[in-house]
């Protein structure tokens, strides 16, 4: 088993205050608190708008040396332009400062919309634009047409991880395949999307699966809306004896 990173999709949620975050904790100190409890987080604000280099440097400075940030790519590439003619947009995203995270930069997450079908030529052209090592990339697909060996062939060729996406039955395709030297898991809610808590039995099941993977693993809970995500992440980290802060 390689290195395991467990966290949540973002860290700033009003529902977490007075629950996961102690009552009275200043908002500017939430990342510091989070990074002493878990060893990674997905930056999802970068999906909605480009951030500044000073943002990334500030996040890196406020977290322990062994903390890692996954970075969700800007939606202009994945949702607005739908991977078409995005060379300038991909370059602008990487120029926005995420590389300033330095050794704290984890994988870059490219989340595709559910209405975008698989088209081999379009995806191949996009993957050619992605910078190689030390940057790692993970692709989350949400249209059923991506369930094809052609996708796996492309991802293995470009050393991109296929996200294992867990959500309520029938919502997103569940594609569980090794395509590179790490695994990336997003847990969106057991029964209700972005909301449902994972039961102890469900967490036991995920812990068992992760132990069987002989590779680095990144796991992020996206059931953030009612505050279950950080508690589920802590419970999974405890099951796997993942060290933190």
Automatic annotation (TrEMBL):
InterPro entries tied to this protein: DUF72, UPF0759_sf
Please give the Pfam families that the UniProt record associates with this protein.
DUF72
* Domain of life, per lineage: Bacteria
> What PANTHER family does the entry give?
DUF72 DOMAIN-CONTAINING PROTEIN, UNCHARACTERIZED PROTEIN YECE
Name listed for the protein in its UniProt record: DUF72 domain-containing protein
Record the organism: Saccharothrix coeruleofusca
């Amino acid at each position: 088993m390689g290195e395991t990173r467990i966290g949540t999709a973002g860290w700033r949620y009003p529902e977490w205050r007075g629950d996961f975050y102690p009552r009275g904790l200043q908002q500017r100190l939430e990342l510091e608190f989070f990074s002493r409890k878990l060893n990674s987080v997905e930056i999802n604000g970068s999906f909605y708008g480009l951030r500044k280099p000073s943002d990334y440097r500030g996040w890196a400075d406020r977290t322990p040396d062994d903390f890692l940030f996954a970075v969700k790519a800007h939606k202009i590439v994945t949702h607005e332009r739908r991977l078409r003619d995005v060379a300038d947009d991909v370059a602008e995203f990487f120029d926005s400062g995420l590389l300033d995270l330095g050794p704290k930069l984890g994988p870059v997450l490219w989340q595709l919309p559910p209405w975008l079908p698989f088209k081999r030529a379009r995806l191949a052209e996009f993957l050619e634009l992605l910078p190689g090592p030390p940057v790692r990339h993970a692709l989350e697909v949400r249209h059923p047409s991506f369930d094809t060996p052609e996708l796996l062939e492309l991802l293995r060729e470009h050393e991109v991880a296929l996200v294992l996406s867990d959500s309520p039955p029938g919502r997103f395709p569940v594609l569980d395949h090794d395509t590179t030297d790490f695994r990336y898991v997003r847990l969106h809610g057991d029964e209700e999307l972005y909301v449902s808590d994972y039961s102890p039995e469900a967490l036991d099941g995920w812990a068992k699966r992760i132990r069987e993977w002989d590779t680095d693993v990144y796991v992020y809970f996206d059931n953030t809306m009612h505050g279950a995500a950080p508690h589920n992440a802590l419970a999974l980290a405890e099951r796997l004896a993942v060290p933190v802060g």
